[in-house]
Design goal:
273 residues; alpha+beta; 434 Repressor (Amino-terminal Domain); tt1808, chain A; 3 domains; 6-stranded mixed β-sheet; 3-stranded mixed β-sheet; 9 helices; globular
Length: 273
């Protein structure tokens, strides 16, 4: 959810800056500066706190829809009508059967019984994802490892129940018993999500919580816009370690034996930024 979308939501729900500050814990002066656009680049934790207020309001009303053109929850226009017909209201009643009944080619994720539309990734997103996947795949092959890498769109039945199906950009499964027919059942060991403008909140807040609680050992969030990599090594801490695209970043599930050189990746995608 962008700042402009939050401003729109603020008007829609009639929230005052005082109310938002009280509910989010963000200082009133900071809230006022953000919604008046005096502050154009708030800190990530501040944005997360504000987004949670509007996400909670959306879930409580049940009147908003998940649609690509609105960038998540938002109003429905004609170009979104077909998808909305299948995705329905943002309730938590969807199951694996509903997911499998979607028309072929419909790209959504289902988290705790709610469908979230997945917008088509931008080119730089695809290029970064492909480069990281190739490095991981080559490492596993050269070491004759038993872990198996996958890229999107591959279904992951994250909690092993019928309420959550995700499609991470890149993930690694080391327990081959989790590879069950058409999908992975259970938490991958390692996940990478490459942010696109439309999926920021989904990957940074919603899926972060789900991945941690499901038992994912390590989660990377790659942000092409500010050229950063957040690494969550859940076996050691709930806090992320931040790297830049000048760094070589080690994969902790393999004790640092595999490293991704983001400076090399940047050299290959710089012209696309």
């Amino acid at each position: 959810m962008t700042i402009d979308e939050m401003i729109s939501k603020k008007k829609e729900y009639g929230f005052s800056c005082e109310y938002i500050a009280e509910k989010s814990g963000v200082p009133l002066s900071t809230v006022q500066k953000i919604f008046s656009k005096i502050t154009t680049a708030p800190r990530r934790k501040t944005l997360e706190a504000l987004w949670n207020i509007f996400e909670q309001a959306d879930n409580e009303t049940g009147l908003n829809y998940v649609c690509e053109d609105a960038g998540g929850y938002g109003s429905v226009d004609e170009s979104s009508a077909l998808k909305v017909r299948y995705l329905g209201k943002a309730d938590n009643t969807k199951t694996l059967d509903d997911y499998l009944a979607l028309p072929e080619g419909t790209r959504v994720e289902m988290i705790d019984g709610v469908f979230y539309d997945m917008a088509s990734p931008v080119l730089v997103h695809q290029r970064i994802s492909g480069l990281i996947f190739n490095k991981i795949n080559n490492f596993i092959l050269s070491n004759k490892g038993s872990c198996v890498p996958f890229d999107a769109p591959t279904d992951v039945q994250l909690d092993g129940d019928n309420k959550t199906i995700v499609q991470p950009d890149i993930f690694v499964v080391c327990d081959r018993d989790k590879l069950q027919g058409p999908r992975v059942v259970g938490a991958p060991d390692f996940i990478v999500e490459v942010l696109s403008p439309s999926n920021w909140h989904h990957d940074v807040v919603r899926k972060l919580r789900k991945y941690k609680n499901a038992g994912v050992r390590e989660y990377w969030i790659v942000n092409p816009e500010n050229l950063t990599v957040l690494v969550y090594d859940f076996s050691k801490s709930d806090m992320a370690t931040e790297y830049s695209f000048n760094d070589e970043v080690q994969i902790n599930i393999w004790d640092g034996k595999c490293k991704i050189n983001f400076k090399e990746i940047f050299e290959q995608i710089e012209f696309m930024l």
